[in-house]
Amino acid sequence: MKIYSGENIRNVALVGHGHAGKTTLASAMLFTAGAAPRLGRVDDGSAVTDYDDEEIARKMSISVGAAVVEWGKAKINILDTPGFNMFVHEAKMVLPVVDAAIVVVDGVAGVEVVTQRVWNYCEEYKTPRLIVVNRMDRDRANAERVLESLIKSGAMDSLGRRAQLMEVLDKAMDRAQKAQRDAESGQHGLFGVFQQDDAEAGNEKLPNVPDWDEHTRLTAEKEILGFFISGHPLEKYKDKLQDLQALSTADLAGWKNSTGKDETIAIAGIIANVRVLKSKRGDFYAQATLEDMSGTIDMIVFPEAYKRIGDKVKLEVPVLVKAGVRIEEGTNPKITAAEIMPLARTAIAGKR
Predict the structure, then answer these.
(1) Under 8 Å between Cβ of 322 and 264
(2) How far apart are CA 6 and CA 113, in angstroms?
(3) Could you give the domains of the chain?
(4) Could you tell me which of 68, 18, 32 has the C-alpha nearest to residue 48?
(5) Cα 351 to the chain's mean position, in Å?
(6) Along the chain (352 residues), what's the average pLDDT of each consecutive run of 10 residues?
């Protein structure tokens, strides 16, 4: 390999969730650039960047693997990073020193937990990045759904407001499909696609549309990731919950005894995972989880209570629940709901 001056050397990190295909992409880049005689595969242990015996045996990256390709007048150092939670610190270590990151997203699974984490690392270190939606040859792969999940999870907030990005998503997909047709016709290669002149797109402005409200934004984050990123629906009610003397799931975790027959506590949260069931007597009841800022707790709405509050079990807003607490040996505490009311409408005694 010839000697390159600093301005012709690029360091690029491949980051993303485990099994998104980062190592396979690195192998494809090496093969396309002529740096490897054949396309390496993770399954048979021939991938260049997974050379450790443990990595080959486990079919997963556990440390940063490096490879070098020459393309045009540039030398590109490819850093293939692990994508599993226990090893993702390796990705964080390389991001401050690379010129750019390629965020690899599984075309079927979409945005996953580590996808969001590495994107946040890129934000922290102001690392330029592009997204590669991988595994598009798999059943149920959907590039548009992946981009939608990136927008909803907040991973693309640096590019504009989420409502704006959703507004132009269809146009972006049309452009991407045109670029793919150009690539298939031989107008540019794997690396050349990043060098094409896109002045027209660069000069366009995002539409001036109203941004999502807090409820829409947080609901979208929970839908994609299973947890909230940019805040929590209960945050704005902290003072109110203190006035209501509401307990948290963390408070109840330390309880040793159940409440008395007619005794109730107050607890606030978001109701999720609702299952409406039928008892042996033919009466409806519900099982669900209540999530607050410190955790979750199982909630049961028995038939008698369900007749009164069944319609409120499916509320998608923060609620205040008055409930009993059941402690059974060998299990976590559960609450038995007696009343459910939207937190925004809950009055505090003595206040108007």
Answers:
(1) yes
(2) 35
(3) 6-203 (3.40.50.300), 235-345 (2.40.50.140)
(4) 68
(5) 40
(6) 85 93 91 86 80 80 89 92 88 93 92 88 90 88 88 87 94 85 69 51 79 90 84 92 93 90 92 93 94 94 94 90 91 93 80 52
